[in-house]
Amino acid sequence: MIRKPVRALIAAAALAITSAVALPAAASADSFYSYDGSTPLSSYAPGTVLKSRTLTYHVFGFPTPVRATQLLYRTADAQGNATANVTSVVRNPLSNTGKAVSYQSAYDSLDPADAPSRAIAGDVRLGGVLPNAESLLIAPALALGYSVVIPDTEGPSADFAAGPEYGKTTLDSIRAATHASGTGMTESTKIGLLGYSGGAIATGWASAIAGSYAPEVEKNLVGFAEGGVLVDPAHNLKYVSGSPVWSGVIPMALIGVSRSYGIDLKPYASEYGLKVLAELEHASIVNALGRYPGLTWQKLVKPEYANPNSVAPYVDAVNKVNIGSAATPSIPGFIAQAGNGALEGTVSNEPGIGGGDGVMVAGDVRALANQYCGTGNTSIKYTQYDALSHATAVPAWAPAAIAWLGDRFAGKAAPSSCGHIPAGNSLAPEQHTGS
C-alpha cells in the first residue's frame, strides 16, 4: 500500500502536470549553489559536504508534505577540475530500511537552472518539466521503503551528454548523502542506481567507473537499472540525422560535450550552424525536440567538414564519451532498450548502426550488454521492447526496473541474459580521417 506522504506527492504531481505550462518561470540566482569558502575547493576530498539545507519538496512549484535535504558537495568535471554540485536526498518518511535508490534524472539541458534540485526547491521552468514529471517515478521508490538520492548529474555548468562527468557527480553525490546528517543514510546503506535516457548516461557511467573512482561506494551498490541507453554518440549522430523530431539533440550534444572538454567547434561551423549553436547554448531538450526537423551534421558545418571524422576535436570528444571504451561494471545490471523508432519519426537504418528507439541505437546497447557479459559480468539482464519507442517504453521499463532492484535489495540471485542477447554493433573508437 502506498503511504500517505507518497500519495500526496503523486497527487501533487498529477495536478501539476496539467497546469505547469501556464506557470511563469521562477528560477533565480541562489547562493546555495556557490561555494564561497576560503579553503580552496580542490583541497576537499570528492563527496565532501560543503553546505546543507532542508526544504519542502515541490512538484511543478506546488509544495508537498515531503521534505528534502539538499547538499552542496565537492565533485569534479570531465577534465578533473574541482567543482561544487548539488544533490537532493528524500529520506523515506516512515522507515529507515538501510536501502536507497540513486535516481538519475533525464533532465537533458544545457542550462543549470533546469536541474532537478531547482525543481525540487520550487522553481518552475519549461526546461524543468522532465525532472518535475519524474516525481511520478520517484514516488514508488519511497512507497517501497527506500530513501531517494537525486543528483544534478550534469554538474554546475550543465555539461549535457558528458558521460564521465555524469558518473563522477553521481558517485560523489552518494558519498555526500552517506556522510551528511539528516539524510538517514550511512556508509553501510545499500544503494541501487536507476535512470532512463539522460539518466541512463549517469547510471551507466557511475557503474562503470565506481571501482576505480569510488570503491567504497561500489561495495554498497546492489545493481544498476537503466533504459534508453546512450552508448556510442558517434553512431547516435548518424542515426538521428535528418529526423523530424530528434535531430535537435545533435547540436545539443555537440555543445555539451564541447563545453565539458573545452573544445571550440565554431571554426568548423557553417553560418547556419553558428546560428543553431547560439540558439541552443542554454537550451533544454524541451526546446530542441522538433525545432530543427531534418537537421544534419552537414547543415551545421562548412562543406569541407562534411565527414564528422574529419574534425579531430569531434573525434577525440566522442571517443571520450563512448561508454563502450569504459570498464565493465562489477555489479549486476538490468539494461532495457526499445527498438521502434519509427513511432517517433526516426527511420534511419544505416549499415553498422541499424535501428533504434528514435534516438538511441539498439545495436549499440546490445553490443554493450554482450561486452559486459564477455568481460566477466554475467549478471546482466537485457530486455528489448521491439514494439515501443524511446518515450513509449518508459511505462514498461520503470516498473520492471524497480522490481529488478527490489530483488537485488532482497539478496536474490541476479538473472542473466548472457549468451542469449542478439549481436550488436562495433563499439570501436572513431578514427580521424582528415578533411
TrEMBL record:
Highest taxon listed in the record's lineage? Bacteria
Instruction: Tell me which UniProt keywords the record has, alphabetically.
Output: Signal
BP GO terms, sorted = lipid catabolic process
Native organism is: Amycolatopsis rubida
**Any signal peptide, and if so, which residues?**
1-22
The record, for PANTHER family, names: LIPASE 5, PTHR34853
The terms under GO molecular function for this entry are: triacylglycerol lipase activity
Q: Which InterPro entries match?
A: AB_hydrolase_fold, Lipase_secreted
Mind telling me what this protein is named? Secretory lipase
